[in-house]
Amino acid sequence: MTAPLRLGIAGLGTVGIGLVKIVQNNPDLLETRSGRKITISAVSARSKDKDRGADLSGYAWEDNAVDLAQRDDVDVYVELMGGHEGPAKNSIEAAISAGKDVVTANKALLAIHGQALAESAEEAGKLIRFEAAVAGGIPVVKALTEGLSGNVINRVMGVMNGSCNYILTRMQDAGLTYQEVFDEANALGYLEADPQLDVGGIDAGHKLALLASIAYGTQVDFDAVELEGIGSVTIEDINQAADMGYRIKLLGVAQLTGRGLEQRMSPCLVPASSPLGQLQGGTNMVVLEGDAVEQVVLRGPGAGEGPTASAVIADIMDLARGVRISTFGQPAKYLVKARAARAAVSAPYYLRIQLVDKPGSLAKIAAILGDAGISIDRMRQYGHDDHSAPVLIVTHKTTRTAVDEAIQQFSTTGLIEGAPVAIRIETV
Amino acid sequence: MTAPLRLGIAGLGTVGIGLVKIVQNNPDLLETRSGRKITISAVSARSKDKDRGADLSGYAWEDNAVDLAQRDDVDVYVELMGGHEGPAKNSIEAAISAGKDVVTANKALLAIHGQALAESAEEAGKLIRFEAAVAGGIPVVKALTEGLSGNVINRVMGVMNGSCNYILTRMQDAGLTYQEVFDEANALGYLEADPQLDVGGIDAGHKLALLASIAYGTQVDFDAVELEGIGSVTIEDINQAADMGYRIKLLGVAQLTGRGLEQRMSPCLVPASSPLGQLQGGTNMVVLEGDAVEQVVLRGPGAGEGPTASAVIADIMDLARGVRISTFGQPAKYLVKARAARAAVSAPYYLRIQLVDKPGSLAKIAAILGDAGISIDRMRQYGHDDHSAPVLIVTHKTTRTAVDEAIQQFSTTGLIEGAPVAIRIETV
């Protein structure tokens, strides 16, 4: 008879309560599968007296997460408070010092302090696990760390912020502007208190940085993620992209290149017929590419009580089953610092410019592209108002640097109105 | 310094050689990630002298897999020969008796003898792992056993035979008959030596039975899988289904109902816009539904050297990392015998009948459906030749039993030519 695995849960929001419900509702299932009873010793949250829709009377209460993390009757400290400093960080450090394993859904904390935390856990012989931090209910940390553990990973891609995908698909479906859908989503409570975490790509960038670390054996480096949010995506671009058989997604891509590790989180065009292109609404999708497995695609809910709690309990079950795999898939001391490569991988680009209607203006634009070494795959010019017209260009493969150079040159011609739009077309 | 994990590999076909290549090409990666060197001690296959495109000179050779499985310098016996009796079974039993863990890609063997083998492994304190047996490179055994381990599983669905999906999508794309595409696929070597394993749904049924055991904690029971192959799917049905927004897939579904465990492998209609409906060619897809996680979809290559070897090495890496999870996700002695439920879950059905052109014949058909308690969602009658016309019916939810009764009644009317077609519409 193995002793129960005793949890201390800090944070009783959606995910914390979801976890409590799973532990309360399916004790026999968890025990049969893991070989141990899973119990909750103590919980902690900001306010003790709030009704959270679950009976917490059987658990000790701690006002302070750091105290909870160090309790003698806690084997696994479950951090579900969020925040990349303060109580979350302090309590996880306290848990490790006190000899506890840690399960967390905190992507921001790990994306910023993951290496240091993994190292201290390792020195203490303890584990930090974070399946719930990436893509909610999708077991993608496990798929990458374990399921594809024999692969050299070639590329990791993902749509990992459901709110952004909701906004982009809703813009297209309803023909609304970014601002209209943003306001709507905000009113519905779909966005973080600081919406930039969502629409600025920060939240998804945290997730990408975590996956990149596992994929390439590198120290997690969120600062090196090239971030571009969806705020500049217009309904015109969405419609034009659709006309040409593409969808616009906030897509994260991590690739190890000869020039270093490239991590990008930015709006991209993907083929409408691809799994990524077909992804609607708040669902998440991660694409893993390895030298042996070729391509595996995982799709599922990226947030919500049940799905995120499902990922948290999976980590807990693994601990109960005695699985002891390092935080990032290999000992933290072997993780290397990757050189950050910016836009090292070439791609086709979608360009939209508002061209002044003068004889020879299109020729001038084409010449600038040619001088920048960019060849044109497709070009469309549309009917115009008084004195300017939109021109759409799909280039052959080129670099971001070349595109930026060309855009810089455009501005010197006096033939362009407004700011040119350049969106990468990711091959998927 | 941990000792190397030493493999004995029986079967040097596509998958065996794929595994050898991974071990040879990426030794440092495997060691860094698992904490142990992965080495090959010995190999075995039918013919020693065949050129297999990999250098095997460094490994001992055994003519007999049973001898290989018992070698002192083998820690993990990797069975990649196939076949559900004979050498595969004997050698796995020998390996377990000799105290080896086992990794196999053998779905037929485990679908038929999995319970007995898991029990003997368990008694010996050894593991049998089989990620490669289900859906090739997709880490679905891991996702279900570990990633969703905190979920009550509501339904498992999958397109798990790439050849069948290739045939069905090719029929639609090229407008060819089943027999034409079957012959083409056979000539291209896409089908098993006994094509019934593919097109009869047997191979996919094996995989479904394995997933059902993990999902529901039941003893694997392939005999209880209701099997229906794709041989009776016509291009007419594919086209009619497409007209109504559906695709026809060979879909496996496992559900635990109040009446027992339902396991079906049969052609089904699924919405064209769903991930299953969008699946083209030889790719596999598994849909896992749990009470907490809602729905997770996994998509990837279901066969081939690299993908299948990727799954085999993942199991080996888990063993190197010290992961000791029971074969079917819980101790074999706790797995229960499930009562087999046949068609317990109701669904809408697609019916196609060839109706003789007589006054009142359609009314008669409608009356029979009504008497069987089947209500009609949509009906279409087409222009007819001399004396009969196709009638398409989509029913509301009903049972297979009711549909079969109605079809039985149809035949007594003298108004039907040929055999009526009835295909389940799976809600996805």
TrEMBL record, chains A, B:
Active-site residues, Swiss-Prot/TrEMBL: K207 (proton donor)
Residues reported in the UniProt entry to bind NADPH: K107
Biological or metabolic pathway of the protein: Amino-acid biosynthesis; L-threonine biosynthesis; L-threonine from L-aspartate: step 3/5; Amino-acid biosynthesis; L-methionine biosynthesis via de novo pathway; L-homoserine from L-aspartate: step 3/3
Enzyme Commission code: 1.1.1.3
Domain ACT stretches: 350-428
Keywords attached to this entry: Amino-acid biosynthesis, Methionine biosynthesis, NADP, Oxidoreductase, Threonine biosynthesis
Organism annotation: Cognatiyoonia sediminum
Lineage top rank: taxon: Bacteria
Enzyme class at the top of the EC tree: oxidoreductase
GO MF annotations, alphabetized: homoserine dehydrogenase activity; NADP binding
Family the UniProt entry places it in: Belongs to the homoserine dehydrogenase family.
One biological process term in Gene Ontology: threonine biosynthetic process
PROSITE patterns reported for this sequence: ACT
Protein name per Swiss-Prot or TrEMBL: Homoserine dehydrogenase
Binding-site list for L-homoserine: E192
